[in-house]
Amino acid sequence: MRFLKFILCFIVFQVSAQQGGMWIPSLLEGMNETEMQSLGSKLTAQDIYDVNNSSLKDAIGHFNGGCTSEVISPKGLILTNHHCGFSQIQSHSSLENDYLKDGFWAMSLDEELPNEGLYVEFIVSIHDVTKDVLSLVNTQMSEKEKQSVIDKNGNVVLRDWKREAWQNVKIKSFFKGNQYFLFVTERFEDIRLVGAPPTSIGKFGSDTDNWVFPRHTGDFSMFRIYADANNRPAKYNKDNKPYKPKHFLPISLDGIEEGDFTMVFGFPGRTNEYLPAVAIEHITKAYNPTNIAIREAALKVIDAKMKSSDEVRIKYASKQARIANAWKKWIGENLGINTSKAVEKRRAFEATFTKALKEEGLENNYGAILPEFDRLYKDFETINIKRRNFIEVFFVTNELMNMTLRAYQMEIATAKFLKGHVMTEDYRKIENERALKKAIEALKNRLKGVHKNYDVAVDKGVFEAVMPFYNKNVDVSIYDTTAFTSLDSALQLLEGEPNEVIKKLNNDPAYQYAKPMIEAFYNEINPKYQEKNAPITALQTKYMTALMNVLPEERYFPDANSTLRVTYGQVRGYSPRDAVYYNPVSYLDGVIEKYVPGDYEFDVPQKLRDLYDAKDYGPYADKNGKVPVCFLGTNHTTGGNSGSPAIDAEGNLVGLNFDRVWEGTMSDMYYDPEICRNIMVDLRYVLFIVDKYAGAKHLIDEMTLVHPKQ
Ligand code: ARG
Ligand code: GLU
User: Fold this and answer.
1) CA separation for the pair 381, 533 (Å, rounded)
2) Distance from C-alpha of 269 to C-alpha of 489, rounded to nearest angstrom
């Protein structure tokens, strides 16, 4: 009996241990491949990543550096989240053409809308260049020396790497600088908007449902990649042609059920899975709370004004979503860290580490790391919070302060002179003046951008709400006298000879108010932050090395760093608390259950209600005759995985990743396989909306629909 219990324990441990991790696609052979197959996958490592033949990775594009997208047709049609395309959808919207509210569907190629600045990047190949990058680095070097050798080595590798003229290369650090990989990439820059559902579908549930399950959001939008006559990356040109991809994902109409294998393939942004307990404490007790408080204050103002004016709603939609998204995530993260007792568990793990150090006689090498972390974080807290509050006020929430900050950057703009270049005073003066002129022009453009989505009353309200978090002296009167609150007067202020502009600028009341704070930030706060943060970063590198040496049996994967990764698991529900269990699949019935007529979060379009009443589902219902909307999996994801495909055991698209569950948002620091789940839109819901709701059947016809389960 005891023996059996032991075996059972072992099996349970094995199963739950086979979870978590964001893996490098070129290194799946061996452990990952076996693990994936044990979870039900029929894919080989080469099906996923292959340099010589087309493979799944050729369908995965980094969407504008912050999200993921996947190719779903031979004509370069790509799928991503509604919230990933949100600012593009917003920028094409106006009171007359309210694509946010009503949705948008291009009924032919000519109607697809270009988007300046938007790009999609594919990974051509991945190469381990650790040996070259770390060559001549040794333990005697200071951190600075080390970094400069690494940078130099990296530059040589990049310079000499063989690539095609239209390709780029970059090197990224993994395992905190213990490993380096080079990526050959292709970046497409003519990306056009093809379709988006109305916000009442694409953002159904809005902030109330964000980060929460049960979920009923159709969080998707579609774009198309255009390429030049040779099918290569090109800037926008109306004569460009739809891109012919090396691979596109077939879409399964058979969907998923509990226990099915899924893998999520995309570009996770940032995780911190190897932090010491003291760092998690700092984040949850000091860092998150201050961020939450400032954003809450700003959101109170923005939300109220957005509800009372359509014009404000359109202008602030994207900004509000960005501010609210992280705000809510931090709250969930704190809750999750508390209820999962992550800090205590990390301390227990640290005790194991320390014990192993003693046993292996490695105390001299690594014994000082953990106490040193304690000391460094104590020293870091005040300055980190001060700096963060500045960023929240001057970069994230308040536009007027942000405009003064940009103006300050203009004022201090000087020409960049080459080191060792001998030059006369006159020459220096002329070049500096030229740089200043350029900076003034750049500032003008930036202000034009800000004012496109600016409302003085909203911004003044935000100012009153957030500034007290940074400075006791809150002078609202600057809003009545500054030139920056209107584009005309701001541009007027920037007219004239540079000297004159600087003089006018320094007479502006908002600038006079903000400048001392901005100077303090650049001259004292930020440098001090850098000084306190650098040794923490260096120690984290050492800790990573130590962990892998001292406890080699643990499951190590490199923290997310915006590079292409594979994560995998199964479709699973979860139990967030006693007596509560969430089924892994939600249905259209749930959309109707949540429907609140006219509500800004839970309204449901008439057409969708009609389709529901008539049960007009086409081929998109499951075998019980219901349309699945969202589902859960044990895939370990983070921000940046938005828009990532969920792929079935055979390599077909079944879902579109867009979120995580409330109780599991702490997975960036502490992944708990029991309650961490990612949320995906079921592809059948996507197709149902495109076909039945939007009547864009021509897009469905481009795709390849399959029935792997029949
Ligand atoms: N929480 C998801 C992510 O982090 C979705 C955000 C978009 N949805 C929203 N209601 N703002 O980005
Ligand atoms: N919605 C997130 C994003 O924009 C993905 C969800 C997450 O953070 O897990 O990337």
Assistant:
1) 10
2) 39
Q: Cβ–Cβ contacts within 10 Å for residue 543, how many?
A: 20
Task: Give pLDDT tens digits for 345-403.
Answer: 999 999 999 999 999 999 999 999 999 999 999 999 999 999 999 999 999 999 999 99
Calculate how far, in angstroms, residue 238's C-alpha sits from the geometric centre of ligand 2. Answer: 33
Spell out a b/e string for 481-499, using b for 16 or more CB atoms within 10 Å of the CB, else e.
Answer: ebbbbebeebeebbeeebe
User: Residues 200, 201, 202, 207: is their CA dihedral positive or negative?
Assistant: positive
Q: What is the pLDDT of residue 5?
A: 40
Question: Is-contact 61 70, C-beta < 8 A?
Answer: yes
Residue 370 parent element (H or E)? helix 369-391
Q: In the chain, what are the domain boundaries?
A: 2-119+189-270+562-706, 277-540
Integer angstrom CA distances of residue 217 from 81, 132, 210, 486, 657:
10, 47, 9, 37, 11
Which strand (E) or helix (H) includes residue 89?
Answer: helix 86-91
Contact 351, 539 (CB under 8 A): no
Distance CA 406, CA 417 (A): 22
CA of 608 to the centre of ligand 1 (A): 22
Q: Is 513 in the pocket of ligand 2 (CB under 6 A)?
A: no
- Extract the tokens encoding 221: 């939008």
DSSP classification of residue 524: I
Pairing of strands 113-114, 241-242: unpaired
The answer to pTM > 0.90 is: yes
List, in order, residues 6 or more apart from 58 with CB less than 8 Å away: 71, 122, 245, 246, 247
CB 564 within 8 A of CB 120: no
CATH topology of domain 2-119+189-270+562-706: Thrombin, subunit H (2.40.10)
- Å from CA of 85 to ligand 2 middle: 13
Contact partners, residue 82, CB within 8 Å, separation at least 6:
89, 196, 197, 199, 202, 203, 217, 218, 219, 220, 221
Tokens 């953990």 -> residue: 370
Span 141-159, average pLDDT: 95
- Computed over every residue of the chain, the mean pLDDT equals 95
Give 569's strand partners: 262
> Is the CB of residue 203 below 6 angstroms from any atom belonging to ligand 1?
yes
Find the radius of gyration of the CA atoms of the chain: 27
Contacts of 449 (CB under 8 A, 6+ apart): none
